[in-house]
Amino acid sequence: MDLTKLLNKEQYEAATTVEGPLLILAGAGSGKTRVLTYRIANLIKNLNVYPSQILAITFTNKAANEMKERVRNIVGNEADGMWISTFHSSCVRILRREAEKLGYNKNFAIYDSYDQKTLVKTCIKELNINDKDFDERYMLNKIGEAKDNLVSPEEFKKKHENNFKLNKVADLYLLYQKKLKSSNALDFDDLIYKTVELFKKNPEILEFYQRKFKYIMVDEYQDTNRSQYELVRLLADAHKNICVVGDDDQCIYAWRGADIRNILDFEKDYPNANIIKLEENYRSKANILNAANEVIKNNCNRKSKVLRTNNGLGEKIKIYRAYSDVDEAQFVASEINKIIKEESKCYKDFAILYRTNAQSRIFEESFMRNNIPYKIVGGLRFYDRKEIKDIMAYLKLINNPLDDISLKRIINVPKRGIGDSTLDKIQDFASSMEECVYSVLLDVDNIGLSGRATSSINKFVSLINSFIRKKDEVTVSKLIEEILQSTGYLAELQKTNDIEDLSRIENLKELVSAAVDFESYSEDKSLSAFLEQVTLVSDIDNFDEEAETVVLMTVHSAKGLEFPVVFMAGMENGIFPGVQSLDNEEEMEESRRLCYVGITRAKEKLYMTSAERRIMFGRTVAYEQSYFVNEISNDLKESIREGRKSLNRENFYRKENVYLDRKYSSANESALDNIREEKNSDSDKLTIQQATPGKKVRHSKFGIGTIVSATQNGDDIKLTVAFDRMGVKILMLSVAPLEAV
Description:
- By secondary structure, this protein is of the alpha/beta class.
- The protein is 45% helix and 15% strand.
- The protein has 30 helices and 23 strands.
- The model is unreliable at 643-683 (pLDDT under 50).
């Protein structure tokens, strides 16, 4: 295999430097997956390294599967002997073999975010902690942060014993871990945390894996946190053949623990490391790359590199300053339709990127009005739907009867007459006996429940026992079908003609299809393997690049993807960059890296849009155009207004009840004097002049609300109003009993 014909000079050097530590600084679109693929192929084909001696770690299943397939296309079935997987999947694989060393059974459950919240609520209640001061999200964030930094519950307790609030967190952390262990369960953060603990407590196990993995490669190294860093360090300590690939300019996950110092300080950890920069971009046109370079150069904490390309200049970046968020969304929709008509593009060629998921609504409404098919990445996941979580809870309990969280979710689903008071008595009895709930249910006659409750529980236990006996005899898909039929879950949904219930039935059929699909490609077809795969899946793993739809997603979700045409929306100070970034240099640098990631998703065309006013949290606000747009030189961008008439600024701000915070705008003082909130009107009936977006109104039946949009409808005005208690309503101004507030 002659790599000189397959790779450019820098790529070739990266693929053939295999001994000792290596840092590959791979700019956006520079072919890092290609480099890693051929580096692995070079080890196997040219250097005769056993595939089982290679460990390649990525951050998503999608990336792992893509790399595995590419390697297989080059070296054949030998690739199957390699470990190419995510951090979490690799750790699960190790822990399935070694869990007993940590006091767990090998069929341990992996708790998702819902399970974690349920368990934390239980702990908060048991410890009599005021949940108004300590909600489950805060507690889980602190526990996750501790695990990411390899801080045990005992260490956390000792460190914070003099801090009232964090001492309460420490108590909960201790109980939370105790209950996880008694349920034979690990949460997502535990997968890496416990693997590091395993290695540190069992040197012989660490030595085994150090011998096994002679060559280690880590993709997206800039996104690693402390526990991931330590895991890699331990595994690579024997041979030092560690290759990390990343781009410090794309480190955008500090909010979930990523430490940019891991990549910036690589040479300090490995003084004899080689450093290779991949700066030739194969994705984007030159104007797009130059814009990205101009934005990111304003960051101080970065390694110097400049992307270049031979793809030609391409079009200038198009800057659109809309009058409102509605106008912004309508502009995007009209541009999509225009480009499709004039340039024969497909809907899948377009992506709308924004900083927060909440920004998607206005685009959804616009796309529906314009008949543009779209898909949101990052909305409610399939496996987060109630009916799916119910059946998954059955599967988790069948696989691991120690799992109290799953049991309590479905013990009365569908309804069996086992109420909360009965369940509380069972839980109290189990706690007093220091046993899991299912063990107590097996001998329910000793708890002192009513005859009716005892009978219902015995039927439930009999049902679960029958499933447990079948789990190793039938496929996962058949087991799911058996659960749906035998529990009466499906029959209960089929009783009604409710559209929502019909949709749930379709989702359950899709779950069966997912299991059939799993059985068709997975070597390990066990229930444990299916549950593991479902738990570790992410939104982006399910992204279908071939679906004929426009994609709406956050910039975070778009990392690693590319599109011919990209719209970066909401480019305003206070949104992108966000409010917190404006007073914090570190957060501003991360926001700038996020902007750099967004820009470099575009291959041919890039639009950066903003609005002079938009509704946020029920009020109309006006933010200036983003600093990041201004950091792009004028010769790389062009402003487009489509010849629309400019607004009378003073009248606009007075009329539209705009809130403009000095902190987010550099508007001059005279303009600020013209901006003020409209005072409450004394008029009984809402007038045409008052019927503007952002206006607070009162309806005699629906209560207080905010006008979202107002459009001409013949001689009348059609209002869309978001009511505080009654949701969104569409009303006609002439007949609706609305008053100005």
